Structure formats: structure tokens, C-alpha cells
């Protein structure tokens, strides 16, 4: 589940990456660095990928901060943002914040996902090397997939997510693995003396324990039949469609190419849920959902 990049994956089918063969190579190198858990290599790969993507006028921002390579390097290595901004004046700090929010988290992720989606769609020989490690690193500002997944759940400290996943030797690569890891390490995670700083403990306590009820939370599987507002021709009966949350109970109904073909309203908020859909004979979609209670 990569919700922050779902929109970018759909856009990726519309705008090809610049110099796709070079971008594919850099994404593969980036992914390999993430899998090796090599912070320096991740930073080097991020800068190399950015250099290629930002050569395109479509992906390039109007202006880059002079220190953008060092900012990007520290961002993907998980350095605290306060350290990245340390000693910067107000104008420079604002430029760096805009660079991370717009160029890194949006434009670079879009470019990387464009290369990955198109390689998979075209059955490119290197498609298997283009994983989601770069998207995690660029989106969440951490050099590992476990830290990225933990950040995705709402833990509001990049350095804390990186520290705790390394301290407890996390190796999970999906949400199911994350939940198993949380359960296995509940005793340590619940102990304030385990944490390296008081701030990290408080953020963990606030974000992962309070108000969340049972821990780990229970999940349930449901099926429902929902009407769809189709944008054009209706996919064939039994055709599988992707359902992407669009805010609240609204979901975009997308084809295999990730292009929207319709919209629908669920009976629940789809954010954070695993959703799958099948087109029925009466032009509706049979939705299978897997979500927390």
C-alpha cells in the first residue's frame, strides 16, 4: 500500500519519464541501495536519479536551491529536518521546504514511478529490479523500506522510525509484515526505557498507542456491491479494476493501466484499506475490502 504515490502512478501513464533508459537504470541502482541498507549509496543514487529526471522541463521546478544535492542527500538518509535547516536564513529555509515538498516528494516520485510503471507495462527485462524502495525513500525521507512503512502508519519522526526499525532488526516489506513485527516487539516498544530519546517515546506513545484501542488492531474482510459512475465504455463483466481512495468515501475506479474509468462511493472511508473490485453483469463493482475495525 503506497497511498501517497497512488495518484502519481496514475499520472505516470500519461507523462513518460525523460530518457527512460537512463531513468530506469538509476531507479534500479536506487532500489539496490535501499535493499542493501546502505545510507551513503541511497543518497548517491537519489542525487543521480534527480539529476536525470530534472533534466526534463516538465519535471523540473522553476528554481532549485543551490544546496539541493546536500538537502536531498540528508533527506533520504533520514537526517532530522531541523538539522537540514540548521543555520539557514528564513528565505533559504523556505526554499528548502518547498524543494522537499514539491520537487522531491512529488516530481521525483512521479518520475521514478513513471519509469517503473512503464517498465512493468512493457514487460521490460529490468522491470523486476525497479522496486518501490525509491518511492519510500523520497516520500518519507528514510533510506529503508521498514522505516518508510512505519512512517506511513503515522509515526511522526523520520529519525525515530529509522532508529527503531534498525534497533529491532526489522526486515518487513509490507503492511502485513509490519503488523507481525509490531506484535512480536510489543514489550520493547511499550517500554519507555527502550527508546533512545524521550521525544521518540512520546511520539510513539501518542501516534501508535493512544486512541487506537487493541494493539495491533483487528482487521476485517468485507464484500459489497456498489454502483459506479462510468466515464465512458464499461469494462467487461468479471474484469478486475483497481479502487483508489480519493478522499472520504469516494474512490476512483481504474483500469489495469491505472487510468480512471469511473468513480464510486463506498459505505466507509477507504483510506488505509486494501480494496479490490470486479465488474458485475449489471455494470456495478463487487468490492472486496480488508480494513481495520
Topology:
Elements lengths: L2 H10 L7 H17 L2 H15 L14 H9 L4 H5 L4 H32 L11 H8 L4 H8 L5 H10 L7 H10 L1 H4 L8 H12 L9 E8 L1 E3 L9 E6 L4 E5 L5 E6 L8 E6 L5 E8 L1
Antiparallel strand pairs: 1-7, 2-5, 3-4, 3-6, 4-5, 6-7
What does it look like?
It is globular and about 60 Å long. The chain contains 12 helices and 7 strands. Helix 7 crosses helix 8. The chain is 48% helix and 14% strand. It has 3 domains: 3-143, no CATH class; 146-209; 219-292, no CATH class. It is of the alpha+beta class and 293 residues long. It has a 7-stranded antiparallel sheet, with helices on one face. The relative contact order is 0.11. Residues 1-5, 7-15 and 210-216 have low confidence and may be disordered.
List keywords for this structure.
293 residues; disordered N terminus; globular; 3 domains
Strand content: 5-15%
Q: What integer value in Å does the Rg equal?
A: 20 Å
* Content-based structural category: alpha+beta
The number of domains? 3
Please report the number of helical segments: 12
Biggest pleated-sheet summary: 7 strands, antiparallel
Could you give the distance between the termini?
18 Å
The shape is globular
**Order of helix and strand elements from N to C terminus:** HHHHHHHHHHHHEEEEEEE
Q: Outline of this structure?
A:
With 293 residues, this protein is α+β, with helices and mostly antiparallel strands. 48% of the residues lie in helices and 14% in strands. The chain has a seven-stranded antiparallel sheet, covered by helices on one side.
